[in-house]
Amino acid sequence: MMDPKEAYDSWSAQYDKDHNRTRDMEAQVLRSTLAPLTFHRVLEIGCGTGKNTAWLVGSAQHITAIDLSEGMLDVARDKIRSARVCFRQADVLQPWDFVEGTYDLITFCLTLEHIEHLAPVLLAAATVLDARGHLYIGELHPFKQYSGSKARFVTENGTQVVRCHDHHVSDFLSAASAAGLELISLGEHFDNDDRETTPRILSLLFRKR
Ligand SMILES: C[S@@+](CC[C@H](N)C(=O)[O-])C[C@H]1O[C@@H](n2cnc3c(N)ncnc32)[C@H](O)[C@@H]1O
């Protein structure tokens, strides 16, 4: 099991090129969930190679986009050259010295599976979220996690699995509620919209009370 920083530094060169239904479905879910909202200042936690930064920058005046992995950030910086985006290497588990004021939208996409304890991270996020601001989470659905799905990639040395932590739906809801966030919508998203299969993506949209 690889440590996330080492894993994503190694995965970064091929992350955008690999076949990855989870990555692609989450991109669609974020866009459809956030399209009706107005937002100006965004904090993107675990921006990776900028899959969602590229869409968010179309609406936002400023984005602070942080990631643990310099490799992932290098790809994102190459793709997105906008003065409205500030990419920063940072670990969300360390003090939040990367924040630039407050935000009206905070996103976590396929990142919280690498964080063992949700409560302190969601509390830190709520602290820098404006009143009535939104917090979006798009994650591999817990049912997929229960069946053994984990972030993984293939190299010439074989399949590399990234260290992940299972979170139940109730874990997200209780950590968010304790941070003063109210649930606006919960979505379960299926391959080919086939509701007889295991949902792939769980989306949660909260608003600060
Ligand atoms: C599966 S990738 C998702 C990237 C992007 N959000 C996307 O949806 O394509 C997970 C990202 O979370 C980042 N990450 C993992 N743990 C982190 C931490 N403690 N602090 C900041 N970023 C972290 C990784 O470096 C990686 O880029």
Structural summary, described in words:
It is a single chain. The N and C termini lie far apart (38 Å). 31% of the residues lie in helices and 29% in strands. The protein has one domain (4-208): 3-Layer(aba) Sandwich (Rossmann fold), CATH 3.40.50.150. Helix 4 links the parallel strand 2 and strand 3. It has helices at residues 4-15, 21-34, 53-56, 70-79, 118-127, 142-146, 169-178; strands spanning 41-45, 62-67, 85-89, 103-109, 129-140, 152-155, 158-161, 181-189, 201-208. It is globular and about 45 Å long. It is an alpha/beta fold and 209 residues long. Strands 3-2-1-4-5-9-8 form a seven-stranded mixed beta sheet, with helices on both faces. It contains seven helices and nine strands; from the N terminus they run ααβαβαββαβαββαββ. Helix 1 packs parallel to helix 4 and helix 5 (118-127) packs across helix 7.
Categorize the overall geometry: globular
**CATH homologous superfamily annotation:** Vaccinia Virus protein VP39
Quaternary status of these chains?
A: single chain
Number of strands: 9
**Helix/strand order:** HHEHEHEEHEHEEHEE
Q: C-alpha Rg, in Å? A: 16 Å
Overall CATH class:
Alpha Beta
Strands side by side in the biggest sheet: 3-2-1-4-5-9-8
- The helical percent reads 25-40%
- Bin the strand percentage: 25-35%
CATH topology assignment? Rossmann fold
Structure annotation, total helices: 7
Q: How would you sum up the major sheet?
A: 7 strands, mixed
Low-pLDDT runs of 5+ residues are: none
How does CATH name the architecture?
Answer: 3-Layer(aba) Sandwich
Structural class: alpha/beta
Distance between the termini: 38 Å
The set of bound ligands, ions and cofactors reads: S-adenosylmethionine
Q: What is the average per-residue confidence, as pLDDT, rounded to a whole number?
A: 97
Count of distinct structural domains? 1
